[in-house]
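> call design_seq(struct)
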């Protein structure tokens, strides 16, 4: 009888260890997947840049600095390695695109160009997808981190060597409240 109780208890303990290990592995893979989805969206955005620039170049002959800034930001995005560098390059590209769209306001013919409008809409849709993917990533990080801080997850995390992960952070420039003047 004691053998059956001991065997049952050992099986329950083994299953518990297995469940927690598999949960941490699953969450880690979900986080990696969410990060790759962000990368996919950033790459889609970068792939639209040459089309946008060719639509803009004919109109913005005197705006070489803005066009160069977007081109340089795209190069940085395409060559960035590692999560932090990719996010930083993506944010720089987003800022550079904002300057192109702000300048475009001064060119009525460009604003009416259907190709430019279509590219602008595609970029806007991609920005929404990037924001959603970042939110999904941070939600995965939160679930994972909560598990590494709550009992009994904290014990299993330390046994298996799973450490808390970092959230994607908003750059300081994006946190600034825009100044609106009338």
């Amino acid at each position: 009888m004691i053998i059956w109780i001991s065997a049952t208890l050992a099986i329950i303990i083994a299953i518990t260890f297995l469940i927690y290990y598999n949960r941490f592995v699953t969450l880690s893979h979900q986080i990696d997947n969410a990060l790759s989805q962000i990368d996919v969206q950033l790459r889609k955005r970068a792939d639209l840049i040459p089309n946008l620039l060719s639509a803009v170049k004919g109109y913005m002959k005197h705006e070489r600095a803005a066009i160069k800034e977007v081109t340089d930001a795209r190069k940085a995005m395409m060559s960035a390695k590692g999560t932090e560098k990719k996010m930083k390059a993506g944010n720089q590209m987003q800022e550079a695109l904002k300057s192109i769209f702000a300048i475009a306001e001064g060119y009525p013919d460009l604003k009416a160009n259907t190709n430019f409008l279509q590219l602008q809409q595609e970029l806007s849709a991609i920005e929404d997808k990037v924001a959603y993917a970042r939110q999904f990533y941070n939600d995965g990080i939160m679930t994972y981190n909560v598990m590494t801080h709550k009992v009994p997850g904290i014990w299993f995390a330390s046994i298996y060597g799973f450490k808390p992960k970092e959230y994607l952070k908003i750059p300081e420039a994006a946190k600034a409240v825009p100044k609106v003047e009338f």
